[in-house]
Amino acid sequence: MPSCLICETPIEPFLDFGPMPIANGFLSPEQFKDEYFFNLRVAHCPKCSMVQLTELVDRSRMFHENYAFFSSTSAWMQRHFAGFASFVRDRYLASDDPFICEIGSNDGIMLRHFAERGIRHLGIEPSSNVAEVARERGVRTITEFFDEDLARRIRDENGQADAFLGANVMCHIPYMHSVIEGIRLLLKPAGVLIFEDPFLGDIVEKTSYDQIYDEHAFYFSVSSLRNLFAMHGMEIIEAIPQHVHGGSMRYVVAHQGAYPAGDSVHEVARREAQLGLETPECYDRLRANVERSRDDLRTLLQSCRDEGRRVAGYAATSKSTTVTNYCGITPQLVEFISDTTPIKQGKFSPGVHIPVRSHDEFARNYPDYALLFGWNHRDEIMSKETAFREAGGRWIVYVPRVEVVS
After folding, report:
1. Cys bridge to 304: 13, 115, 309, 377, which one at CB 3.0-4.6 A?
2. CB burial class (10 A; 0-12, 13-18, 19+) of residue 56?
């Protein structure tokens, strides 16, 4: 039986997705025979409340010189990170010469807003290809994995930090105790950790099971994070819901006693209690809802095929890997996946090997239906795909339920 990554309590999976490939591992045909798979299972710890994967993939398989995700490709995310940076500057940078660190800083989409103002900063990005893009944009970036040892080196070279930031990154890190201890050492007495990650409450409410894949080792809630940070003398002082990534939470964490906890923390805790996030019954319901969603989506796609309708996927996301493999969606059901990321075009989706093609090919010969894998950017995508809709195209969505929309 696996043990909890946080408190070492024995845990049992409540949801088993079966063999799963690397979520962002888009590949060429010659790589098919050597494709790596692992067992994707998720469990809830009855002691510390942390929801987590029970089998981890070596980080070098996920974050490397060919990492296929660049944050700046989304205009929506560019606006979001500009707002995130303003939030930090306006509320938590009071010193004369502040210093900001960001873990998993990607292509510098957020830190550039500090760099452009001459604010001392450091991005920590383990994927060398996206880190190089950040450096080219004037964002000071190192290519390493963050832990307690690196935190000491950063502190010795730069002094302590006013703010340590993360966006959709903290949930990726299984060795969380070393990371949090490093952050604690690096932060000034009044310094803050501010990070965003997919919120467990949204996953449960929306049945957004595609948030579960190899990179996401943890699925956070206020209750589980309170337990984790208390082990390191830290506490959550704000919890602010966000719309990005299909439902996220922005957490502000500080040394214990440095700030009073805001009302937002108590409000989110009450919402979690209403959902029953600390009870096994909650996860029994989630499993049943996930299985129903899988069956409904596959039935719909098979009906489209039987009627001779063409279906293409839209957005070759990491999340789509969970959906296509768990639901058994092959090229017989989805002809190809349209994506604007050059590094993915001409390759094939992990596991089920659906071709990934450019958006130009999507627009040249519209399918009857587009399966929206990038559902978390639904408004942005649909607003720019008016020609597809005017040509009679319709969207298939599966969060929060499987349905066809115009």
Report:
1. 309
2. middle
